[in-house]
Every structure is written in C-alpha cells, then in structure tokens.
Amino acid sequence: MLSAGFRPSLKEFTAAAAAIAEDAIQTPLLPFRASPSGEIRLKAENLQQLGSFKIRAGANALAMLADADAAAGVATASAGNFAQGLALAAARRRIKLTVHAPSTAPAVKLAAIQALGALVETHSYSDWWQIMSTRHTGRADGHFIHPVCEDAVLLGNGTIALELTRQWNRIDTVCVPVGGGGLLCGIALAFRALGARPRIVACEVATAAPLTRSREAGRPVSIQRQPSFVDGIGGGGVLEEMWPLLQELVDSVVVVSLDEIRDAMRFLALESHLICEGAGAASVAAALSGRAGSGNCVAVVSGGNIDLPVFTSVVCPES
Amino acid sequence: MLSAGFRPSLKEFTAAAAAIAEDAIQTPLLPFRASPSGEIRLKAENLQQLGSFKIRAGANALAMLADADAAAGVATASAGNFAQGLALAAARRRIKLTVHAPSTAPAVKLAAIQALGALVETHSYSDWWQIMSTRHTGRADGHFIHPVCEDAVLLGNGTIALELTRQWNRIDTVCVPVGGGGLLCGIALAFRALGARPRIVACEVATAAPLTRSREAGRPVSIQRQPSFVDGIGGGGVLEEMWPLLQELVDSVVVVSLDEIRDAMRFLALESHLICEGAGAASVAAALSGRAGSGNCVAVVSGGNIDLPVFTSVVCPES
Asked: How far B136 CA sits from the closest chain A CA (Å)?
C-alpha cells in the first residue's frame, strides 16, 4: 500500500539501500555531454540485472514483507519489468510469487517471468486493470504488491538518489521518465529526505503524455495513447493514488517527440555504448532538448529492454 | 619507453590512479553469469569516454611527462583508440599532440582525432610501421609516446586491477583481450604489486593468434592475419619489447572463434545492454567457453568502438 502523506525519512531510504544490496548494483553515473552551461550525466539503470531499475523496487518490497506474508506468498499485477524484478528477488528469497498479467502481454515476457519461477495467471485486459485498481486478484494468492503505489516500491526506487548524491555533488536537475510515476516520486522523495532540492523534470513522450494533460486539467485524466516503440512510459492515464505526490514533486514536464527519443538512443549507442529502450532514452532526449533548464543535469536511463530488431531499426535505420 | 625489467610498485599504480581520476571513470564490474562452479563478471571499459580503456593509458602518459616535455609537445604513432585517448587527455591539459597514422586508417577515425585538437600526419603503412618500431618520426614534434611499450601506459592500464580488487574479493581468473599486450601486462603487473595472483588468461581470435604461435615457437613470430569484424586485437605479430613480459605474465591463452565472439556480443547486448566491439567481447567469449578454467572470472570488456551497421549485422543478422 501507499501510505497517505508518505514522506519517508533518510533512515528509511538507507534501510532500503541496505536491503537491496545483494539484488541491485550501484549503477554508474556516466559522463555524457559537457557545455559551458553545464554537464549531462547518465544514471545507467539499464545496466541492472534484467535491464531496469525495477529490481530495486521488487527486492525492497520483499525485504519489507512481514515473515508471515513472505511464508504465505505474494502476488502482483504487471506484465513487464516489475514482475521480472520481483520474480528474481522472490526466487532468491524462496518466496512464492503469482503474477497477474493481461493476456495481451508478449509471450516472451511471460515466459521470462515463469523461467524465474513465478506462477503466471493471465486475464482479459479489463479484468487485469480491475486487479491493478482494486488489488483484489480473486484468489488466495497472498499479499498483493502493487508495481507503483507502494511505500516499499518508492523506497526502493529512491535508493537511486542516495547513489547520485555520492556520485555528483553539483546536481541542478534530474530528468526522469514518467510512466506510473513510481521512479520519479521515489527519487524526488529521497532527495527531499537528503535535504536536497534539485529540479525534478518529468519526461513524457508526445504520443502519450497523460501527466501533461492532467496538469492542464488540474486532476488525473485519461488519454488516448498512440502506440510506438516507446512502450515503457506513456500509459492511458495518471494513477489517482499517485496524483498528489506527482503534483507536489514534479517541478516541470518536458514532452519529447519520437524523433528526439530516436536521436537520444542513437547518441547513447554511439557515444556511450549503451542499449536503451525508448522510455529509458526519454530523459536523455529531454536533457538534450534544452527544455529541461540549464546547469548540471542527471538523466535517469531507466531501462534497456527493447527487442534487438526494434533497437536496430531505430539507431541504424539504413541497415 | 618501457624500462627493462619493469616491475612497478603498488605506489606507482596508486599514483597513476590519482593522475587519471579526472580523465577516466572507475568502470563498473557488472554481474553477467552465475553457475555453481563460479561467476563471470564484466569489467565494462567500453563505458569509458571514447569507448575504451585507452584513456587510462593516454592520460597517465601525459601526467607522467616532465614539464619541459609537456611544453614542447608530444607525438605518437597510432590509428585508433590510443590516439583518441591521448588526444582527449592532451586537449584537457593544453599539450600539443602530433599523431602519426597510416594512410590506410579510416578517415572517420582521423577526423575524430583532429576534432580533439591533435595534428594528424599520415604515412605509407611501411613508413608508419618504421615509426612504431623506432620511435623516430623524422620531425621535431616532441617526446614520443608509444601506444603499448611505455611504463606510463602499463601503469595507466593497471589501474583496472586496483579497481577490480576493491570490487570483488574472490577473483580466480582474469580474461583479457590481447593485441599489443599493454592491457594484459598492465593488469597482471598491478595484481602482482597488490600481492594477488589470479590466473591471467590472454584472449586471441582464431583469425589472428600471434601470441599462441609465438608461445609455440618460443619467440615472437609474425603471422598472416585474416581480416574480420574483430579489428582491435589480432595483429601481425608480437612486439619484441613486450615478449619477455608476456612470457612471464600470461598463464594461458584461449583462442576463440569468430562465432564465439558473435555469440558473446549478442549475449552482452541482450543481457547486459552493452555495445561491445569484437575485441572487447573476446574475453567474454573465452570466459563462456569453459577453456579459461573454473571459479570466479572477470572478463575485461576492453572497448565498444564498432560501426553500428557492423554491430547490427553481428548481433541481429536476420534484420
């Protein structure tokens, strides 16, 4: 659950960092671009095992479980990176996990979750969304862990800010891709717990920018999303439960185009030798756009899970 | 110059690490594969600026220059990564650099060196090889820095071992791609200075394995190399000056096939989200082959400089 008015202390984030030390690596902060007005550096979460920051959240969610809950097993609703991260952390702790996924999820992703030892149950998309919203799976499959709206998830994601503070003592801006908002809110809350206030820039893609639309409307709204190779951000709306935190913690939103994301992915491949997914490169695109402000900027490269043929067609379209 | 009987102390390696701290990053050691018999982890030097470990050597070579030599400018003979690393380090220190390159070098590489502010002089391949062998450029272009046979170069490369020792305290084997041998000898000498003796495995590619042939012959021999996408290792012979060190420091050689390197590059892309050049993946191929021995193994991923269309054709041949 996400506690009302959740404002965790530094001690809570430090405990999360200790709890996930065997599961997640401390990702490097890589130099990327420098200009007289400031530098851009990359927090390369795509280098985590399974290719995304989600292992931080999954591992911490299990670390914070009561013993009785762990013994009874846990359940989640996710089709992607969070389920994989949770499945890896669960396998290491020998905790039984049931993953509820939409039947529309790619078979290869479901197979990867099963290969990590989790039980996968598929549902129609509307039934699955119902589970996401209500946390009721209709089964006695144990304690439900939400992929975003969960204290433990925000604490796990916030460990990124603890590392950033040690890695660079002159951060003006942090660009974070925003989907559910768990990554952004975790990082922003941890900076506040540290007594730091870098500008927090939420990065959305033009084909699906529900946070921008919700800020305009002054409330969480649903939008029509346009599918693209950017599948890790840009959902159909803002989660009600996350809206108060997003309103408080986001300093500005930068909406980047698919072309800007393509360019960022190409630069990351050519200059930094990193394979990034579209969502992971959205923060880099925002930092490069000039629309995130001046000064020293961290772009959080959230993940690298993209099919190689898709990656190839984006960074090397002539081949 | 490479001093006769060069056996540097830990203090010398520590000084090199301090000297290059502004130029090179401490690259991460990434988990890659685990089995009951041991783990393989990746020392990701492809994440260095300019995409290879060479920045360590270039920066340290300039740091160790006498002031008078620095004021007069420096020269080197290289067509690739070393010249780029040296050029970047020289630009940062405002030291004049002349790079002597073979006219066969790719124009794009020469342009990159010039863009970093260095003067490029091209020569016929035989004239260039003469410069590499004699260190006489025929010009008054200052102190000559050899890309391999140089105390400062081995010290710079050896800083990798200092980081490895902090990153993992249970290293049984270190797999290192071997071209000139500067990377391998630097790392092996630093481990000795640290009082550690992991098994040092030199990794060659089947299309050009001069170290294997030289070890069979008991002396440095020239070979006929077969060109391939693996262009960072596999020269036409072993450098006379490096032979005594290579004989002493190499515990075994593993020769990997082009197919094994292709597989390693694909695994690195899919599982680790890294773009690696063929030479950089040779160490990973050796570690995966089972022929490097058992236990915990570090594969030094030396670089990531590969044209994207070539990378694409290797890791994603169906596209």
From this structure: 34
Paired tokens of A96: 């039984």
Ramachandran bin of A234, using left for φ above 0, alpha for ψ from -120 to 50, beta for the remaining angles: left
For residues A156 and A20, the answer to whether their CB atoms sit within 8 Å is yes
Residue B155 confidence (pLDDT): 98
Residues A267, A315: Cα–Cα separation, whole Å: 9
Do residues B168 and B292 lie in contact, with contact meaning Cβ atoms separated by under 8 Å?
Answer: no
CA angle B11, B12, B13 (to 5 degrees): 90
What does the alpha-carbon distance between residue B44 and residue B30 come to, in Å, rounded to a whole number?
Answer: 7
> Tokens 């108060």 map to which residue?
A244
Q: Is the ipTM of this complex over 0.95?
A: no
Question: What's the average pLDDT block by block, 10 residues per block, for chain A (319 residues)?
Answer: 93 98 96 93 96 96 94 91 93 95 84 93 89 90 94 98 97 96 97 98 95 96 86 83 96 98 97 96 97 96 92 84
Query: Smallest CA–CA separation between B287 and chain A, in Å?
Result: 19
Mapping DSSP to helix (H, G, I), strand (E, B) and coil, where does residue A276 land?
Answer: coil
| DSSP-assigned beta bridge partners for residue B76 | B99, B145
**Is the confidence at residue B141, as pLDDT, over 80?**
yes
Question: Count of CB atoms within 10 A of residue B240's CB?
Answer: 11
CA distances from A281 to A34, A285, A288 (A): 18, 6, 11
Q: What is the Cα–Cα distance from A284 to A32, expressed in whole angstroms?
A: 10
Strand order in the sheet with A119-123: A119-123, A97-102, A74-77, A143-145
A302 closest CA partner among A56, A102, A1: A56
> Shortest CA distance to A266 belongs to which of A250, A252, A278, A256?
A278
Best mutation target, B54, B273, B306, to test chain A (most A CBs within 10 A)? B273
